Amino acid sequence: MDVEASMTDDETSQGYDRIYVDFLERIKNEVLIPRGKELRVNAYAMWGEGVPYYYRFHNYKMFAESADKNGNATINEIQLMTYDFAWNGSSAGPSTPVWWFREVGEWCVECFNIEKNPKAKLTIDNLYFGSAGYGHRWGMHDQDVVKSGSIITYRNLLDWQNGLYRHFHTDDSSGETTYVYHDQEFLNQASIQDEESKNEVMYPHVYDIFHPGHVKVSKQDGGSSTASIGTYNRLDYATTNFKVQVPKWGNIISIGNEPSNFSGKAFPNALAQSVKDYAEDNYIDILDLPIEMRQQQDMNMDPTSIEFNHLVKTVDGIDRVFAGWYNERRKYQEKYLYDEQGNVISAMCEPEPAPEGRINYELNVPTAGNYRLVAITAFSWYTQAKLGGFANGQQFKIGGDMVPEWYPFFMKGAHFYDVGSFDFNSGLNTISIHGELSDPNTPIYGFIICSDFDQNFTGGELTMNTNINPMIGKKGSPLPIPTTLAMASKMLRRDARPSLLWDDEFRTYGEGTNISNSSYYQKVVQDYKYEGGGDFVAQDGINESTNQPIYKCYSEPQDIGFSQGEWTQKDFALHYDSPTSGQLVLSKKWSVNLSIEETIRVARGGGSVGVRFYAQNDGSVGDGYLLLVDFKNGTRTLKFENAGTTTTIASQSIGNISEGHSIIFKVLSHNGVGQFYINGVKAFVEGSGNPVTANSTVNKTTGEVLLERTSGAVGFYANDAEVFCTHLGIGTTDRWETMEKFEVTVDGTTKEFGQIARTGYSYDEFGYLIYSGLNEISTRDSGQGEDSSSVSLDYEVEVFDWASWEGAKEVKINLRDAGVWFGELLIGDREGMSIIWAGDAWSFLETMNMAVNEYGAKGIGLWTMGQEDPYLFEFVPDVVPKSQSKGAKN
């Protein structure tokens, strides 16, 4: 029995798996058992519970556990369709990649192996996996054919490898069209075996090919790569996770890479080693050293030395060294008040006598004029993100309220900041940073005066050194290179994402580190104060020698933090395990509209896990919203906590979520409206067999919820559970970052690709789409191709023509957006080049042996007979599944 359908357009409805199994049980009980027949079912390849979601009505656990009226397995045999992962309408690849085959196999073991699932009636030794006897060919020479592949037989592959090409041919005189073989002048293809799938891969009419491992990635800032090479599902890719500045400079006038002089509470980032040694030898905290000692800078400016501690930034193609300095806030000191007998009666606080910090640069300008001033700074936190000063008496501000919360360089290290245009004199010009105008501990690394500056916020640059040579004809002579070449670039583009505010994978804190004690995720503390931070006076004990009270100056007491419980790094993830509730919340109250994404693997789920968001009351844990998966009650729930009161806003069945697996939570909010997703499925939308219990703020048709709060802090929540959290991503729906554009440059000519047309919308200085809302897709023009209303989750191939050449030439691909993956570049004949993937005897035997020997399946089915490599029949053994082998229990 073969029932096939796709639920792509229905992400929310539940219960179709139960309906389908009930249908199979009726067929078995009412039709087959009375006639002495058995039931064999074809099933989609599934590699997790409800994965992929559009085939979720094929529920392997229900298949395994279903029993007929006699108590036996409802289904006697299953044939799994583990083929056509790559198909005519997809990007080129194997029909059955081994990594995917293994994921399906592991899930089958979880569901059909009696040791893993004691409830299984249908066991894995009654499963057949599947394999395709055919292959596919995809044209790569024209944009109209790259996703219009065709099925080919193994015989086709052998013919093409031997130069026999069959085409439709129309006779000029008679007009009759026949399908005939044409003798080829030369064998214009290369062929390899894919290591992973053991498929044969052929590249007809391709002159050069590049994979990510063959490209040169551009570098800057002392060797930092602008892109990274990775592997996903056994395929290499090149991408940029976050865009970087690759500035374009116009006529650099002068560079100041370290202060000319300094005063007050100004200090170097890199302290002289001799000073650090002195403090260590004498057990003195560096902050307690005299100011003059703390102002001694490390003078090693050689970036190639091991002891180098300064900054390297690329300016106009040259790596330059910059020394960082910062200002500290003046501390408050105690001034004791005495009575006539000399006894301490109280104290007052006043600033220390040291003047505010000054960091001064003197830059020489040959010709007076109005020029751009560019600073190099770093914003390590939102309270360390402002510098103020003067350029020849003209005041300026860097950061602070000049940058929005979505400013892309928070916590991203040193970056260039366009301060603006200023009048400069001929000769020396003074630029100064003033401590009283700056956030404490915000570094300044230097200044650059230039005529023009473009920060060029972009992805990485990939360079390929091509070499186009003629094919050799049958008689041994070189044949002409085509007049026009086609370049086919395989790229993975993505839908735009809300601009990132914070991204943490909890991998770099150190094993065992208590992250809930960090300054980022501050624990709840009542009446917190720190010494020297203000004029709040408090008694701090009694001097034992004089019996006089001791007073200290503190900052004004305040409640801080939102985190509770012990959250540590374990196995390169954030770990929490407790029978009580806890939360890890970032110590930042956001004011913009938010997008939140969290990944939580639930090792033990007796209680509930999820997202805490819009917490506002510092020093409190029971405050704000909670989006939860509640294992105890079997629900996904939205709650609101405020002033000791908890309100359940919406609740719905937990669906296909179980402990032992990762859960991806997503929250989108905009102007008081929230949308909620769990594992990619929109929550609180009523569907067939999936009711929602909710109050009046919930629209059960759309799942949208009216929110009382629109600002606050965000983090993880867990109660009576053990969890491993691997991602916290916070963004804003007030700006969207596109992940679609790339450029190709040959001989100085650049062509742009991938940008979706959005009439009426523009982009800001960071390349962010100026759109505030929940549905970025609504900004896109309707139409076809690059104006499509969707971005494929598969690799896409962009084909472009170029005048042919012979010999070496540089081809550059610039990933203009982050998140765009480069997978492959083909250069070939514009009149026709292609990629062919086809399995042979080896690939079939590889998957058959895995199915039978590794997973204990009954065998493997071949679709379809007559298209396969005939050689496989010489190697197929008589196979007996493990369950039926000698000594096995029946």
Task: Describe the structure in your own words.
With 890 residues, the chain is mainly beta. The longest helix is centred in the first third of the chain and has 17 residues, at 16-32. Mean pLDDT is 92; it is low at 784-788.
Instruction: Tell me the total number of β-strands.
Output: 59
Residue share in β-strands = 35-45%
Q: How many DSSP helices? A: 7
> Helical percent range?
under 10%
| Low-pLDDT stretches | 784-788
Question: Structural class of the secondary structure composition?
Answer: mainly beta
Write down the overall mean pLDDT: 92
The major beta sheet can be summarized as:
14 strands, antiparallel
Distance between the termini: 27 Å
Radius of gyration from the alpha-carbon trace, in angstroms:
34 Å
* Shape call: globular
Outline of the structure:
This protein has 890 residues and is mainly beta. Helix content is 8%, strand content 43%. It is built from 7 helices and 59 strands.
What are its keywords?
single chain; mainly beta; globular; 5-stranded antiparallel beta sheet; 890 residues; 59 strands; 14-stranded antiparallel beta sheet
